[in-house]
Amino acid sequence: MEEAPQSQEMIDMDEELTKIAVAPGKISGATLADKLQYIKKKMAKIPSYKYTRYENHTEEEILVALFGKYDKAEQACTTSLVEGGNTFFRKVQATDTKEALSRTICIWDISTDLTKKDIATANSCLSSTVTLHNMDDYQELNQKWSILYKNYHMRIFPYFGTREAKENRNKYTATIANLPENITAKDLEHIIKQVNAQTCYIPKKDNSNYKRLAIFSFHNQEDRKQATNQNFQLSKKLCRGGQTLPQNKQLCIRQPPTNITNAKRNLSRNQRDTQRNTANRHFDKMEQMKENSQSTTTKTINIDNNSDLIETQAQINQKINKMDETMEKLINTFIPDTPSTNSTHNTPTTLTQ
């Protein structure tokens, strides 16, 4: 919806940016992208020009251009945007300064069917990057970890230190698997409250469908431990399309053999490389044995007609099948299979770490 601004690393946060704006309806162009491109060409010749973007405020929509120097922004405001017309930029308060960004949060996991107006309604904010009017509101909102709006749980992080906040909040997580198709956080709201989870993230398998699992985040290990000792129920109406799932559920932290376990996940890179190389050597050895067996048998049949030296085709197939079974065991040992998200087995839903 907007022209991508420069990355945070490319913009000097200590530099005060001056923002100028104009209403989209005053700029010619068939699409929003055309209007942004038109403004970019107009402003490109003015020194200290940074970038152009679209902003959807609660009360109005604007196209803005940002400048690193105040006097150059004033110069841009005196430049007509329409040939022979009376359309000019006006100065507005910038939200890209370091002070403003310290009051800014980033919202993740926004559903594609939510509009900016929906987000504004949910957060009393402007867009997915929200700058609050005062620090008290920022501190209050930043402590929530997530916002539940309509059917969705949207995670929130501070603008500065997003990666560190995400890592800290992912320390104590657990996963519920084998959920009904396209379940939403709204469907699991009673479970979220019951287990005192801070967030409920349901990943997508494509642009329109959600996976059959939900990832819960907790404040600490004690909260997660208490959650695993509780029982809960899924409503029958969630079992859409004739699905039948056990109604009684128990949250537990487990490591199913078909999943990559935490111990596997925490292996160092060198350990993983060693395991992978060992598995590859076994695979190569088994393949070589299979080729040698087939080659030797063929030569024996062609050279010597003695029945004692000739292997039947059934014996050859039996040897090959044994080799394949050995290779399959090696694969299961070193590279565990990932369970299919489309499984319809009526297995109990459990919370996994």
From TrEMBL:
GO MF annotations in UniProt: nucleic acid binding
SUPFAM superfamilies, sorted: RNA-binding domain, RBD (SSF54928)
Location of the region described as Disordered in the Swiss-Prot/TrEMBL record: 334-353
UniProt protein name: 11250_t:CDS:1
Low complexity: bias regions: 338-353
Segments traversing the membrane: none
InterPro entries: Nucleotide-bd_a/b_plait_sf, RBD_domain_sf
